[in-house]
């Protein structure tokens, strides 16, 4: 089983739609979780951390389910500029900075 | 702050040649990471440093790869000799306190 698994997509949605991505992780001892965004031919950029209680940043909501070992990202009112690949990231190693990246889910928002 | 700086941005070389990639982390960040990204394998951690000391190099694919961090503001990743299967985008990232690492723009390496 892969350490961090994501549906590669692409998810094709119209502007204004709500879209959700899920990600599963294999190591139950994982401590920290993040969503990164990567635009085509660019570097990954931190979108948001994922906290146990769930957290929201504007149109973006992240949730963690430790019992089922999955993380979700919800995007409301999609914009054209949200088109990107969204990487699920988990701290699996013993060190707090040992991050494992999923291969990403591609989102395409169309007019 | 200029962010993480990497050079070169693109490198095309022939099999067997030595390749050196360079990284300047964000000032004050005491963690530095080297990653490789390919379509097949995604983003893979190669090695990371804390306060210029290598902490975990288990991701380095083989002895052809080496990394150094002689001071807090500079790191290199060297491939000698290079092979076509090394073609990838190599990212450097730095971090101070969690959460999150800040990535440089990457070096796109093509080995012919």
Rg over alpha carbons of chain B: 13 Å
* Shape, per Cα inertia axes of chain A: globular
Chain pair sharing the greatest interface = A-B, 20 and 20 residues
How would a crystallographer describe the biggest sheet of chain A?
6 strands, mixed
Q: Give me the count of strands of chain B.
A: 11
Share of helix of chain A, binned: under 10%
Count of DSSP helices of chain A? 0
**How many strands, which pairing sense, and closed or not: the largest β-sheet of chain B?**
7 strands, mixed
- Average pLDDT of chain A, rounded to a whole number, is 92
Fraction of residues in helix of chain B: under 10%
The average pLDDT value of chain B, as a whole number, equals 94
**Strand percentage of chain A:** over 45%
List the helices and strands and how they pair.
The complex is a heterodimer of chains A (111) and B (112).
Chain A (H helix, E strand, L loop, with lengths): L3 E3 L4 E4 L4 E7 L7 E6 L5 E7 L4 E3 L2 E6 L4 E6 L8 E8 L7 E3 L3 E6 L1
Parallel strand pairs in A: 2-11
Antiparallel strand pairs in A: 1-3, 3-8, 4-5, 4-9, 6-7, 7-8, 9-10, 9-11
Chain B lengths: L4 E3 L2 E4 L5 E6 L6 E8 L3 E9 L2 E4 L8 E7 L2 E6 L8 E8 L6 E2 L3 E5 L1
Parallel strand pairs in B: 2-11
Antiparallel strand pairs in B: 1-3, 3-8, 4-5, 4-9, 5-6, 7-8, 9-10, 9-11
């Amino acid at each position: 089983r892969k350490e961090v698994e994501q549906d590669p997509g692409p998810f094709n949605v119209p502007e204004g739609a709500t879209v959700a991505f899920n990600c599963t992780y294999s190591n139950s001892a994982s401590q920290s979780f993040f969503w990164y965004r990567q635009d085509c031919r660019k570097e990954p950029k931190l979108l948001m951390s994922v906290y146990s209680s769930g957290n929201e940043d504007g149109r973006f909501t992240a949730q963690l389910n430790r019992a089922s070992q999955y993380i979700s990202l919800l995007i409301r009112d999609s914009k054209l500029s949200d088109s990107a690949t969204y990487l699920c990231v988990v701290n699996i190693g013993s060190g707090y900075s040992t991050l494992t990246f999923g291969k990403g889910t591609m989102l395409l928002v169309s007019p | 702050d200029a962010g993480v700086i990497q050079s070169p941005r693109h490198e095309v070389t022939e099999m067997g040649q030595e390749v050196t990639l360079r990284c300047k982390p964000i000032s004050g960040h005491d963690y530095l990471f080297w990653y490789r990204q390919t379509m097949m394998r995604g983003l893979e951690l190669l090695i990371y440093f804390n306060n210029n000391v290598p902490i975990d190099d288990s991701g380095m694919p083989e002895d052809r790869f080496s990394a150094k961090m002689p001071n807090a503001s500079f790191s290199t990743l060297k491939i000698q000799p290079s092979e076509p299967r090394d073609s990838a985008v190599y990212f450097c990232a730095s971090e101070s306190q969690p959460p999150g690492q800040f990535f440089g723009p990457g070096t796109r390496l093509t080995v012919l």
